[in-house]
Amino acid sequence: MSRIIPVKEVRRFIISALRNSGGKPAQCNDLADILTAADLRGHYSHGLNRLEMYCNDYKLGTTCNESLPSVEKQSSSTALVNGNNALGATVGKFSMNLAMAMSKETGVGVVVARNSNHYGIAGYYGLMAQSEGLIGMSMTNTSPLQVPTRGKQCTLGTNPISLVAPGATPDDCFALDMATSAVALGKIEVCRRKDEPLPQGWGCDSQGLEASDANDVMNGGGLMPLGGTELTSGYKGYGLAFMVEVLCGILADAAWGPNIRSWQVVDETQRANLGQFFMALNPAFFGDGFSDRMQQIMDVHRNLDSVRIFPLSCLYYCTLRYVSHSQTHI
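Below the sequence we write its predicted structure tokens.
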């Protein structure tokens, strides 16, 4: 039987677990914000489901509890941040705040970070920008979990892309947050725990062949690119994952592709050294009336006739999913 837990209690639990694992108060608060945001928005694979991983990173020393991110290079609109192996949520917040500050002065702020760690849902950082009337974009590379089209080895991560754009009111926006693999690994893990078959196009076995058993994916197989097989345009997802790698691992001089440590590594000497990308755009520096036009295009798609079997509008997965779960309880 499921229970509904107040967000305040969930935050207390997260902070307590991280503090007991060696985390510092400010970083623990950063992560509590992001994990609760993930669960509230229906991204259950990246909420409390990930708490154990972060605690283990602190206990093993693969994430440094004493470090804070720092700026290594900066121009009026760009910056290179060294995460110094700090908690990914702390690096992400630092980097997006820097990008936002630059965009308010020059119209655009682009920040890439290296020596970072898993930073939670990519959409959180776009929402930070949206809350101040800016367009926010974020990407990260991850441990190699995705098998390229026609391949058998995992050489790319889930490599998510997020873009959030504000509408005419503060509580409305277009919010895209998606893996460039067919799904995130957490969804495979959930299927394995529930002993449920995988939907088509989610994962492949050790021979690169489509798999329906989560164990085949977790034990020597990998995630398929967004789109699934080659027949259903999986090569497009592969291309998007590669693009994220260019903007994150390659541009930031971080670890990239197959050089990133394996998922949930237990060797405390191996740092993740993830590369991450953050961009803030200030609509005021571009065409007048952005928020009104943005509201119009969202409303057009919300008001389209839906297929009868779906009770929500066509824009559900781009916007409504981000707000329909946002209540005071998880």
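Residues 320-325 have pLDDT under 50 and may be disordered.
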